[in-house]
Amino acid sequence: MQITVLGAGAWGTALAAQAARHHPTLLWGRDADQVATMARERVNPRYLPDVALPASLTYGADLDAALAHAGRHGTDGLVIVATPMAGLRGMLAGIPAHLPTLWLSKGFEAGTGRLGHEIAREVAPGLRCGVLSGPSFALEVARQQPTALVAASHDETLRDAAIAALHGGSLRVYGSDDPIGVEVGGAVKNVLAIATGIADGMDLGLNARAALITRGLAEMTRLGLALGARAETFMGLSGLGDLVLTATGDLSRNRRVGLLLAQDRTLAEILATLGHVAEGVYSAHTVLDRAQQCGVDMPITAAVVAVLQGRMSPRAAVGLLMQREARNE
Ligand SMILES: NC(=O)C1=CN([C@@H]2O[C@H](COP(=O)(O)OP(=O)(O)OC[C@H]3O[C@@H](n4cnc5c(N)ncnc54)[C@H](O)[C@@H]3O)[C@@H](O)[C@H]2O)C=CC1
Ligand SMILES: O=C(CO)COP(=O)(O)O
């Protein structure tokens, strides 16, 4: 299978390395100098330093040529979009309709509030596509540490293509026909990881973290159900799985944002030093907007939004959550 990965950040590079062990794979990046460095040194010094990339992986900065690589044998190729959510719309709009496509981006699009499958429906109707998500720090995948992912699409042939492309060795890829649930899980866990980062940064303790994860999962599930997802999806890899990973794992950029907010660093300072995208920062208020449109209560998300917008201190946000009325679980 001919595979093209669009986006040479941490996750695109890690997944391209995995794919290249089994299939002819090309990694496209928008920065020609970075691409030339990767091709020469077989390492991505900016986003995944210290990980040697397989010799079989090829590189390109020309988007048309990269897409032609995936289309070399007609419809048998696969395009994997690995940009942040902000780049997904532009990428999907340029992919030829015959090329099956997966995206890795996790979030609600800032401005429109759309999930990936909603963007695809708008800009690429007819494209066979789906999302690949689940608990997966790029560094661990790049180091070939065991990881389980979920490929979600209403199109069974697309799920099969994702599994054929990536399942094997240290990576297990499960299928799901609930792309809404898988996308809501991947988007909301980023916001909740900021919340547990704040709690841990304030030394609130392990009980507080467990409470945020559990009640956060309830928020995530409520929103997902309102948007048309199935409840059981949130007990799976992209719900509970990715939430536990991101909310507790110090490799998470979203969690790191929360830890630093708790030290009273400003968001601008934090983002200037992060060096990678933290999607929760950009989709938190969009999650809340969509929840409000559906009449869904998301108090933890609302608290994170207030802190991110500088309207409330972390301490005040915790106080507000603790003062809420008692209710049945
Ligand atoms: N890093 C990780 O462990 C994981 C990340 N993800 C998701 O994958 C997506 C990408 O994340 P990372 O690779 O970690 O980000 P990153 O911050 O490491 O790299 C982002 C890459 O995207 C490129 N980029 C940014 N905007 C772009 C645009 N408009 N068009 C084309 N390229 C653009 C940047 O140049 C950079 O190469 C995010 O949505 C993230 O939530 C999902 C699972 C794991
Ligand atoms: O999505 C991820 C792990 O599954 C990565 O999380 P962060 O973006 O918070 O690093």
Automatic annotation (TrEMBL):
NADPH binds at residues 11, 30, 47, 106, 138, 253, 277, 279. SUPFAM superfamilies: 6-phosphogluconate dehydrogenase C-terminal domain-like (SSF48179), NAD(P)-binding Rossmann-fold domains (SSF51735). Keywords: Cytoplasm, Lipid biosynthesis, Lipid metabolism, NAD, NADP, Nucleotide-binding, Oxidoreductase, Phospholipid biosynthesis, Phospholipid metabolism. PROSITE patterns: NAD_G3PDH. Substrate binds at residues 106, 253-254. Transmembrane segments: none annotated. InterPro entries: 6-PGluconate_DH-like_C_sf (IPR008927), 6PGD_dom2 (IPR013328), G3P_DH_NAD-dep (IPR006168), G3P_DH_NAD-dep_C (IPR006109), G3P_DH_NAD-dep_N (IPR011128), NAD(P)-bd_dom_sf (IPR036291). The active site is at residue 189. Belongs to the NAD-dependent glycerol-3-phosphate dehydrogenase family. Catalyzes the reduction of the glycolytic intermediate dihydroxyacetone phosphate (DHAP) to sn-glycerol 3-phosphate (G3P), the key precursor for phospholipid synthesis. NCBIfam families: PRK00094.1-2, PRK00094.1-4. This is Glycerol-3-phosphate dehydrogenase [NAD(P)+].
